[in-house]
Design goal:
Keywords: Membrane, Mitochondrion, Mitochondrion inner membrane, Repeat, Transmembrane, Transmembrane helix, Transport. The structure is a single chain. This protein is an all-alpha fold and 100 residues long. Helices cover 82% and strands 0% of the residues. The longest helix has 33 residues. The two termini are 36 Å apart.
Amino acid sequence: VSGADVVNRISVLLQVLKLILEKEGVKTLFRGFGPNLIGVAPSRAVYFACYSKAKDHLNGIFMPNSYTVHIISAGSAGFVTNTLMNPLWMIKSRIFNTMY
């Protein structure tokens, strides 16, 4: 990608942003922010709580703070988070789809 292409893409992006602001206003840029927070905030809280708990447990089994501990902790936290939060993400999606 050349410098001219980058400048052209930025120019097009700014033109589109200007058009959106003129036709729909600033408020439209944040449409969907509320429903997204309903899913993201608890999801991150569950992930980091599970990661911390798994890491504490695994430090007693493997060499403390090794790559193995971090990888297994992250994988297990991701699995637990996705399993627990899937129903909430479905509700969030339904809310978002009915709002707009």
